Amino acid sequence: MNKTERYEQISKEIVDAVGGMDNIAGSAHCATRLRIILKDNDKADMEKLDNIDLCKGTFVAGDQLQMIFGAGLVNDVYDVFSKYTHTENMSLTDIKEAGSKKHNPLQIAIKSLSDVFIEIMPGILAAALLLGLTGVLNNLDFVKNNATLYAINRLVTIASAGIFDVLPLAVCYSAVKRYGGKPILGIVLGAIMLSANLTNAYDAAQGLATPETLSLFGVPIELVGFQGGIIIALMIGYVVAKLDQFFDKKIPDAIKLLVSPLLTVLVSTLLLFTLIGPVGRTLSNWITYGLIWVTENLGVLGYMLFAGVQQIIVITGLHHIFGAIEAQLIADTGTNFLNPLMSVALMGQGGAVLGYLILHWKNVKDREICIPSFLSTLFGISEPAIFGVNLRHKYPLIGGCLAGAGAGAYVYWTHLTALGFGTTALPGLAIANPANNGYLNYILAHLIALVLGIVLTMALGVFHKDEKQKAKAKKEQEAVPVLEVKENVLYSPIKGKAAPIQECSDPVFNSKAMGDGMVFTPEDGLVVSPVNGTVLMIFPTKHAIGLRAENGTELLIHMGLNTVSLEGKPFELYVKEGDTVKAGQKLALMDLEAIEAESLSTETPLIVTSMQPVRITNAGAVNWGESVMEIVHEN
Fold it and tell me: What is the DSSP letter of 482?
């Protein structure tokens, strides 16, 4: 099978697992993930998707089903998949728009905030990293004493401050663009917010300058600038966009170019100083004072609570609002205590992935998912770790959250803060506040989160394994159904989905070369006898059992496809050759996870090897011991 054929097979399996072609609204890809918009996410079989060839993990984030294939590979898979599903030429913007149609108003509002900051994030990240660099250089004597190095550092300082000096303008521009207005009008309103004709907001707040006061219809308006007004910039950006759209629709084309922008800027300016500005300042103060109240009144518990639940908030998508809050916090206080808390929360999840990996190192599929997921956390991206590993297995998520809380306590005790926002983990070191040994404490806080994540997850994993083994033992002790056995009737050996043998994915079986029968997709690993009879044969690798029914019919139960290569490891037998068995009696137990971990199918054919014709009496969902086939006697 060449690459194209392999990717076509992957595409077919994806379409089948998501509920068919009709359930796909669009697809696109990023650097590592195939992103699919489904009309109904509930139709997706996540377990099937997780076990698709080359896929390293599957999760649903917001409105998108995301499958991790890795850099480079995802491009090739997408090329074939998009053609197969007729969704080629869709951009990430297109897929976001397709997905947004499924959102409720709150989700739309939160996502729009995220989009505003994504637009300007490259500039913020560049400035934040330069800020960290100049923070280090400022403390070095040889930099201060060398003219060239001093000059470079001064230029770096200027470069690092640039975006933060005009951040309200950048936010206003991005907000107008996001909400459908002309971006240049966002720049105009942003410039008005920072106009030199207004008293600097920081000077006014410190009593260093007295702002001019106007009387508009008897209402006093202070001409104070909006330096640090991130929330206000978001609000006025939305207003500008909607006013621009309104005037464009209402004003005749002949004068639209002149009149529409004029009215948009005029009305927006009036609203900025009379309504949006005062309301935005009040809202900003509430947010800042609320966060400060939490730190002053809840102390270490407040820090632990935030760091413990922050990655849970990532799952909901509500974390997108933190960018605006962090920016406002820096504008109001000069530092950002949320950033290190979010960073150690993320690193706790990274530690949880390593803890899970240690417990399951022998599982090839887990290694393929866990290693890149952990590496992503080192660079501030937690979604692969959360959705690909921790949330999927539950207990690592708990271990990671507890680790984040523990490291959050260290952040509190060491007074660790950041001077910027937008970057965490290793890149976040650049924006750590150097005060109070900030760089050292930043590293120690993350090591604490990492180690706690590993240890706590492994401890929870041992407990989880014990519970799993108890459940397995209970399952083995379950009473098999008492059957009224009928002659020539074959009963289901599996709990799961039953289908005619033609639907088996193995050509040897689906061609009926070995005989007629059925194929079962197990929900459970327990295998029971489909007849009263004798154990005729057991393969040395335990993966197949031959039976002879009382009426002479010979059967083969083949547990999984191509599982002979596993040398019996995933199979536990309860019978031996020559044993007499009753219909519904336990024959074997398959470890489905171990089979899937080797990228093998758990499909289990039941074949009538004596080549007698059969009639299917029950297909679809079946339980152990349900009638599924009948031997047909030819005249």
Answer: P
